[in-house]
Amino acid sequence: MTQRRDFLKTTAGVAAGTAVAAPALWIPSAHAQWAGKPEPGAKLRVLRWSRFVQGDIDQYMANVKKFTEQTGVEVRVDNEGWEDVRPKAAVAANTGAGPDIILSTNDDANLYPEKLVDVTDLADYLGKKYGGWYPVCEQYLRPDGRNWIGIPLGAAGNCMVYRTSHMKAAGFDSFPKDTDGFLKLCKALKDKGTPAGFALGNATGDGNTWCHWLLWAFGGSLVDKDNKVVINSPETIKALEYIRELYPTFAPGTLAWLDPNNNKAFLDGQISLTCNGISVYYAAKTSNDPKLKEMAADINHANMPIGPAGQPTEFNLFFNQMIFKHTKFPNAAKEFIRFMMEEEQYGPWMQAAIGYVSHPLDAYSKNPIWTVDAKHTPYRDAVKIMRPGGWPGKLGYASAGAMADFIVVNMMAEAASGQRSPKEAAERAQKRAERYYKV
């Protein structure tokens, strides 16, 4: 993750420059009541994913300090890369020791729900006070439809990130809204020597995001609503035939790209179109390099094109907050998460993180971060419109395991590169998924 930190670093000064005071633009529900208090002498350890914009960790830690000052609860925060958080969370679940709270990704909580503290009371309080949770939040963290096993933090929204001048030079006045136009744009960019580039390695964020979007855009899915594995389907084959035609338009090396690589390639001028969070834009905008500042003015964002499925099929990197049952201070842990999700802390944190994390509660859609710059707006509804990774089935051990094993990403990479035919890639994905979704 060091590379990504280097290229996506955003200074605290920039965060302050873009932040706008966030007034309460909604009326909190009178029924939202919370009376939780930390245990006497409580101490907490939090493990979370590493920063990708500097303002995120700066404001997060400022909020941690504020919490300690108000409650007397000492909080230790450890930062790890996305790929490192998951195994450490699994160890904590299996050994019954380690961090009290872990901020992890996607449906990791569904790997060990019995090891997590029931936070239904906290979820109900926050939902009532802040306009309700978006549907995907319940799909991820309320798998039985009753009890919450974690509290949503939001999601790293992903959009098409592109160079406006290169798009126009390729003959397009606006970014295509459908997959047919998107393919034509990528071919035209390649012909102009300004290619696209999308991660096809085991990239937790970027690889999963765009590969799931593409599968769903053509009507394919890993499983059906009854959790029957159906990825070897005519719809999936069409998606794989599409990516086989799309892949030759990419810059070299994308089969090995992890999350930092497309950022680096974009900022180096090697590609002019990718799928990413808002962090690429701010890395350019806040750079001291005049060339990158000039590039920032040329960068724009668009929501993912619509495919034959005829509706948005976006997938974003979902963030959860889990409290483990081995904690000695469950009340303090709940109080910490409540404090961090309240408008007084969450609003400034969202602004300091420049919209890198899109909100899970509807009230926060009114935060000025989404309108202070028009280039932010496409990221605003990332959680509102996204699907969960195991869509349309029920999330649980199988969906979490299949996601962690990069089945969809690997299938796309195999078909794109010609390592396997679309039919062979779909058949292999079917067999791999069936090992998780056992009948």
TrEMBL record:
Q: Which organism is it from?
A: Zeimonas arvi
High-level lineage: Bacteria, Pseudomonadati, Pseudomonadota, Betaproteobacteria, Burkholderiales
Q: Name its cellular compartments.
A: Periplasm
- Provide the family line: Belongs to the bacterial solute-binding protein 1 family.
Keywords for this protein? Signal, Transport
UniProt entry tagged with the keyword Transferase: no
Write down what this protein is called. Extracellular solute-binding protein
**Record's keyword annotation contains Lipid metabolism:** no
Q: By its UniProt entry, which InterPro entries does this protein fall under?
A: Bact_solute-bd_prot1, SBP, TAT_signal, TAT_signal_bac_arc
Q: Where is this region: Disordered?
A: 419-439
Cleaved signal peptide residues: 1-32
A GO CC term assigned to this protein in UniProt: periplasmic space
| Superkingdom classification of source | Bacteria
Ranges annotated as biased composition (Basic and acidic residues): 421-439
